[in-house]
Amino acid sequence: MKLKITYNIAQTHLLTKKKQTLVAMLGVTFGIAMFIVMISFMQGVNQFLEDSALDASPHVRMYKQITSDRPSLIETLNPNGFNVIHHQKPKQELAKIKSGMIIARHIEQQPEVLGVSPQVSTQVFFNTGAVPIPGTLAGVDVVREEKLYRLSQRMKSGTIEDLRSNANGVILGRLLARKLNLKTGDKVNVTSSTGGTALLRVVGVFSFGIQTVDDARGYVNTAKVQELIQKDANYITDLHIKMKDPLKAIEFGKELSRQYNYKVEDWATANQAILAGEQIRGVMTFVISFTLLVVAGFGIYNIMNMNVMNKIKDIAILKATGFDGRDIVAIFMIQSAIIGLLGAVLGVVIGFSLSYLLSITPFTAGDFLAIDTFPVMFNPMHYGLGVLFGVVTTLLAGYFPSRKAARIDPVEILRG
Amino acid sequence: MENRNLDKSGSEPPTILKASHVNKFFLEPVKFQVLKDISFAVKKGEFLSIVGKSGCGKSTLLYILSTMDTAYEGTLEMNGRSLTGLSQNELAAFRNEHMGFVFQFHFLLPEFTALQNVMLPGLKLGKYSAKQVEERAYEKLRMVDMHEHALKPSMKLSGGQQQRVAIARALINDPTIVMGDEPTGNLDKTNSDMVFDIFRDISHNNGQTIITVTHDQDFAAGGDRIIEMSDGHIISHGYENQV
């Protein structure tokens, strides 16, 4: 089969009906452009949320869980009996991780670990007015915290050195500070859940851009919290661990929970809402894109069908002069392929332009998230996928009319 | 009377086409036998016309001879080669190389120029380079006196002009057999005469065989032989008119 003549015939058909060709192309173009914009935006959002969550939370968190779901004494002593227990209360035990600092050092030595930040936190009330405002004070080692969370980059006023140099210092979350109407330099009185009080000086304000953190957290030195809750210098309640590769966190967490008898939580479990959201958005994107492309495909099918109908005499004469079924299929498939390819390329270009415009459009999520413009991800694989989908859809849509054309009986047509 | 059937060297020309015991049935709306035990032979270089009243089956016979209609009983032989039972693609290739068609309606491709229309079957055959096919196309157009209009889009030509271009297209691959289904049906006297002259010329001078179906009595009479059909039968092979 001589590709050159079939190509020439196909090309002539396309060029003499420019408007029709363009309309067919536009279907594909629109489908792919929207696909690109949607997937770039969805992936951008997913990436942004994941990064935010990852940034501000530990990859793995180890802590002592005070719960009631431990096996009761009676169960342990009388396992074969029929035991009934009502209202089991939490044991009077400390929230302390025994030998916390030693464990921390041990974990830090593991090669996959970026750093460990031992913390002791407690619930407190801030007394700035008639109504006490609740919050959490996280007692940290500033240097370690910096290594894990780059706290210095989150400071809106003051520096982390100020906290180091000031035993009574506290760095408040931006929204918390606003709630308490406090600025750097002010003093604030806090009361812990065990009754201890302290007078703290605000040495800085931070913002992670996540409401739950900015609204309720304050950083103080470890010693201060230990003093507030009247515990010794070895009293640690949490170990925050950051991995060099966040994807290894889940497995590492499982390892840790086997080694130590404490609760270990990885970031995926802690941020299930975000990950669930990701999955749902992913499904949505796929369904919508698929629909768009199928509809475009139907449009092309219609147009190719019409083409074949219009050209039925031409097909008959081509067959009479010696073109065979394969040539006829080739003529129409080539037309489909050209429409698909041009439409897809145009779609990708338009998709990119729209994505770019979106990425520079300002967007404020208020206090909830720190974001200035719409998050958009530019991934060349999406573009490749778009072109592939476009061409495949068009070829499929063009195939059936092409085959119909090839089966035309020239005698019927020529005899009128 | 000289025997017009002798070729240039004076010897009997070979049989170019042979149909044996061809029967055809139409199945819609009811089963109807349109061709009844048709057998005949055509010699190389003959100018043959098939005539008969409407509905006698002459066009149906022509389309079977053209290899485009393969739904028949019996055998068809061309150039000694059996054409019955070949696949559609094989028949298409055969048509491309050995046959040219002229229909009542020109069936030129409207988006292409006269020249391109003539060139297409030649390009498909692939025997000559594109440049050579173009030269040959000009040659054929000159033969039908249409070379001055070669680059005009075919839809801009008059009916008579289009039919002449269609004849040039039928001749591009120098086919062994040229078949026509009422080739002068849509033409006036002048154009009809022109078509007749071209057919006469190529059959006598090039040894190409012409088989036409026609209602035009003058056209048929000017050829070498007339086969008359009636009601699906051949009632006259036309040999009585010759010595």
3D architecture notes:
The complex is a heterodimer of chains A (416) and B (243). With 416 residues, chain A is α+β, with helices and mostly antiparallel strands. Chain A is built from 16 helices and 10 strands. Chain A has a 6-stranded mixed barrel with strand order 2-3-8-5-7-6, surrounded by 4 helices. In chain A, helix 2 crosses helix 14 and helix 14 (325-359) packs antiparallel against helix 15. The radius of gyration of chain A is 33 Å and the shape is elongated. Chain B has a single domain (45-71, 86-241), classed as Rossmann fold (3-Layer(aba) Sandwich). Chain B is α/β, with parallel strands linked by helices and 243 residues long. The relative contact order of chain B is 0.19. Chain B is globular. In chain B, helix 3 packs across helix 4. A 6-stranded mixed beta sheet of chain B has the order 6-7-8-3-9-10. Chain B is built from 7 helices and 10 strands. Chains A and B meet through helix 1, helix 13, helix 14 and helix 16 of A and helix 2 and helix 3 of B.
Total domain units of chain A: 2
Give the largest interface: A-B, 26 and 30 residues
Rg over CA atoms of chain B = 18 Å
Any low-confidence stretches of chain B, pLDDT <50, length ≥5?
none
Name of the CATH architecture of chain B: 3-Layer(aba) Sandwich
- Given helix and strand content, the structural type of chain A is alpha+beta
- How confident overall, as mean pLDDT of chain B? 87
The termini of chain B sit apart by 7 Å
Low-confidence stretches of chain A: none
Could you describe the largest sheet of chain A, including whether it forms a barrel?
A: 6 strands, mixed, barrel
- Strand order across the biggest sheet of chain A? 2-3-8-5-7-6
